[in-house]
Amino acid sequence: MTDLxxxxxxxxxxxxxxxxxxxxxxLDPCEGRIRTARSFQVxxxxxxxxxxxxxxxxxxxxxxxVTALPRTETGALVEDLILQGGVDTSHIxxxxxxxxxxxxxxxxxxxxxxxxxxxxxxxxDRANSSASQIRPDEVDWDALFGSEGVRWLHTGGIFAAxxxxxxxxxxxxxxxxxxxxxxxxxxxxxxASLWSSHPDPDAARRVNxxxxxxxxxxxxxxxxxxxxxxxxxxxxxxxxxDSRPFDALVARLAKELPKVxxxxxxxxxxxxxxxxxWGGVLWLGGERYATPVxxxxxxxxxGGGDGFVSGLAWAFMSGLGPQAAVDFGTAHGAIAMTTxxxxxxTSLAEVQGRVEGKGAAAVR
Length: 364
Fold this sequence. Notes:
Layout: E1 15-20, E2 24-28, E3 41-45, H1 49-57, E4 63-70, H2 73-84, E5 92-95, E6 108-112, E7 121-125, H3 141-149, E8 150-156, H4 157-160, H5 164-179, E9 183-187, H6 192-195, H7 203-212, E10 217-219, H8 222-229, H9 244-256, E11 262-270, E12 275-284, E13 287-290, E14 294-297, H10 304-317, H11 322-336, H12 348-355
Parallel strand pairs: 1-4, 1-8, 2-6, 4-5, 8-9, 9-10, 10-11
Antiparallel strand pairs: 2-3, 6-7, 11-12, 12-13, 12-14
Helix pairs in contact: 1-10, 10-11, 11-12
């Protein structure tokens, strides 16, 4: 079995995993549309945080989040939702707010689930958010990764794209984590809307290239690699769930990014907003590991990729190896898309059942 190298023993660390990123309020019109909604369901969410929450709620690991919130009622709401998710809040940076959101605020994300021919739709309202103002020197990284001890750090391209300060913070956190022997995963998670408003037009490629050269686990599809790393890829394939053309790309990246141990990706082909062909693939030590691609009924597609990362990280931290990592990641991501909100409402036993091929018959 090929294992992920460098994982610390759990007994040596206070935290199994720490996430660095923004936690927003997600406002969900449920079956309706944002433009005609009269009420919203409220969830917490964020591409990086979702991984820590999945590792805690589904897999029972000890997790914390490094983020920032304003001292307002909406900031308190986000904190309460994080606590409900079981994620530690001791590393939250609290900002004094001016009362109207000019200096700092909670980021909002309005998200439609989509249905049938109508695709999911996200509409962000996050300028001047507390997390977008995090600076590298605000966190004692050596205390976190050294004195407290962390096995796995997860962060991603959404947080890095929020501002020049968050890009610098991401790099500072990763460098400190590597000094202390922490495994680092990074989800490229490219969002054109974020990088297009960045002060540096070439920042996406420059920042992500530097980050990718430092991490152990890199997650992204062809589009993300092309946009973030400047990798030329073929035109969009007839079958987006076919990973074979991706193999040559990974072989090239393995030479260019020798510190990356794992390249991982979800395979998603949206037949409609309600049905996706779904699978996963990863490469470790020159070997390819994958799951079959199958149709998954989708209630809410948001968070499927984050569920994939948390299942993958849990399997590696549990010493189960790369095939189990892609199996559990794919299964957890699939279940995450059957429930509302960004995160899976599931258990390890339920994920294990899907990995083992158990059907959807009622459990009585």
